[in-house]
Input
Amino acid sequence: MLVFPNAKLNLGLYITSLRPDGFRNLESVFVPLPWCDAFEVLPAPAGAETSLSFSGLPIPGEPETNLCRRAYELLAADFKLPPVQLHLHKDVPIGAGLGGGSSDAAFALKAINSQFKLELTPEKLESYARRLGSDCAFFIRNEPVFARSRGDMFDDFALDLRGTPALVVYPNLHISTAEAYARVVPRTPHHELRQSLQAPMFTWRETVSNDFEEALTPVYPVLAEVKAQLYAAGATYASLSGSGSAVYGLFPKLAEAPQLDWPAGYTVWSGKL
Ligand SMILES: C[C@@](CO)(OP(=O)(O)O)[C@H](O)COP(=O)(O)OP(=O)(O)OC[C@H]1O[C@@H](n2ccc(N)nc2=O)[C@H](O)[C@@H]1O
Ligand SMILES: Nc1ncnc2c1ncn2[C@@H]1O[C@H](COP(=O)(O)OP(=O)(O)O)[C@@H](O)[C@H]1O
Output
């Protein structure tokens, strides 16, 4: 079975308090971004052990700790699964705040569920996904949600951005999620996120923000430079996604995302939400 794990964007992100488990409570709206990896699961040939192979962007870390492998092991602990042949083609940049690794893990759970007819409900898949990472559960339902708690509890959020042109710029900078969280002091948000996002998109520039952006920009000024370029090119709204370092711009629906020149080494995705 072949699946295409997509990335996500965060529309606003407020880190509200430190939790007793050491994680932070947050509020954010997650939306799917159709920038995808490819993941395949097949039963292993007779006599072969479970394997995971890669193509595309190199992924830091040992293959045994890759989230696709961990997704298989998690299900194999509870269900009688045969050895499998896994392959991941990586296209979504890593350490970008686009949730690429989390999406691979969630899509691996969904693909193994279908391939081996485990008949797990979406709720059960979400609870497995939560064990692999805070962001993972989002990719089970994979539609716009208001996320809270550790970023793993969701309320439906009706926001139809389909067809909105987007430009996502990865300035070749890997920011570790744990490092980014350590730089933010939790606080009460200045604006109610869901209310702000119900207003027209041109108002979001004043009312919708990402707490990581304020904390990381003094350390990585390139983030502000990319954002300024996106606004200068006509973005209606621009922001850091998640804990960075990808910065996105959303453009008017009847326009195309502009073609801009970026320094060598940057990776750019352009398309419609
Ligand atoms: C910041 C966000 C926003 O959507 O996305 P990314 O920038 O990673 O895409 C997420 O909260 C990232 O979730 P995820 O990448 O799954 O993080 P995890 O593996 O669960 O945790 C990595 C580390 O981040 C910190 N962490 C994560 C989530 C959270 N609510 N509070 C935290 O303090 C912890 O230090 C943890 O050890
Ligand atoms: N399948 C995977 N794809 C990407 N990263 C992975 C994967 N499995 C494990 N990782 C680890 O997760 C870390 C963060 O991954 P990623 O989800 O791409 O970034 P972000 O948290 O910024 O959205 C990487 O440093 C990498 O070591």
